[in-house]
Amino acid sequence: MAERIGFYRTLSRPGEGLYREKGSKFIAMACPVGSVEEVRDVLASVRKKYYDARHVCYAYMLGAERTEFRANDDGEPSGTAGRPILGQINSRHLTDVLVIVVRYFGGVLLGTGGLIVAYKEAAAEALDAAGMVERQVELALTICFGYAQMNEVMKRIRDHQARIIAQEIKMECTLQVLVGLEASEIMINQLEKTEGVTVDY
User: Fold this and answer.
1) What is the dotted CATH code of the domain comprising 7-135?
2) 138: Cβ–Cβ under 8 A, 6 or more apart, which residues?
3) Which phi and psi angles does 126 have, rounded to 5°?
4) Confidence class of residue 4 from pLDDT cuts 50, 70 and 90?
5) Domain spanning 137-200: which CATH class is it, in words?
């Protein structure tokens, strides 16, 4: 699948999956996440809910550049759980996503190949059940200006469909905005050409 520059794919909602093999049950959950802290919180919640499970394996991918990731086997043989889960995330070109697969042991050993298939299939089912969405990479800008430039600054924000995430309006104003990567260069140039306006990014 070709990726558009300035865009990334993630989940629009959580999804669940279930895979059974020789008495073992693999319960999978896929959810959108935005940080390692959020990953830790979700993992803690899942471990608490499934406190009696033999293994809680997972993989995550973070950031529009897809450079922050981790795969964890949680006691399963090395490479049989976390890596197949991460493989499913990668095959869909997703980011800002966490997939957890909880295993309840059924008494029969599955072997390395059986484990890889089970974790892969459970993860795939959860990801397929989740909604996928394409989002635009955004750049954060801090715009400082005098109150007299308010109309000009707000026009640029509207023109480029930027989102205001924080503001301080006084005689000297500060806005923090998020703008799509594709529109950011033009918007920054226009704002920097406006007298009395500074932009940090």
Assistant:
1) 3.30.230.30
2) 163, 178, 179, 180, 181
3) -65, -45
4) low
5) alpha beta
